[in-house]
Specification:
With 122 residues, the protein is an all-beta fold. Helices cover 0% and strands 48% of the residues. Strands 2, 4, 5, 6, 9, 10 and 11 form a 7-stranded mixed sheet that branches. It has a 4-stranded antiparallel sheet with strand order 1-3-8-7, with no helix packed on it. Strand 4 and strand 5 form a beta hairpin.
Length: 122
């Protein structure tokens, strides 16, 4: 099973950009579906983006399409989330997730990272 560690969160002004990284360990990374969820205070965790093991299959929430890009580098065991044109409502704790079932539209990951905070200021 893969293990996940997120990094790259921080404070950014609205309209700015951040890149999140998810470093994975474990023999199955190159065959794993990997993605991102986020959770804001008082709200349910929501799906953001995911990518299949080849890197050619990606899936996005409507709220981030055209602004966020997910990618992976299997040689570095890392998945990235490039976030551009950040909005106040993008502020959340972002969680990397992997494996599970139902990809892409009913994806239920079964491995989670600890999360990284993204704060967007006006």
């Amino acid at each position: 099973q893969v293990q996940l560690v997120e990094s790259g969160g921080g404070l950014v002004q609205a309209g700015g950009s951040l890149r999140l990284s998810c470093a994975a360990s474990g023999r199955t990374f190159s065959r794993s579906v990997i993605g991102w969820f986020r959770q804001a205070p008082g709200k349910e965790r929501e799906f953001v983006a995911s990518i299949n093991w080849t890197g050619r299959g990606t899936y996005y929430a409507d709220s981030v399409k055209g602004r966020f890009t997910i990618s992976r580098d299997n040689a570095k065991n890392t998945v990235y989330l490039q976030m551009n044109s950040l909005q106040l409502e993008d502020a959340s704790v972002y969680y990397c997730a992997a494996d599970g079932t139902g990809w892409p539209t009913r994806w239920r990951p079964d491995v989670w990272g600890q999360g990284t905070q993204v704060t967007v200021s006006s």
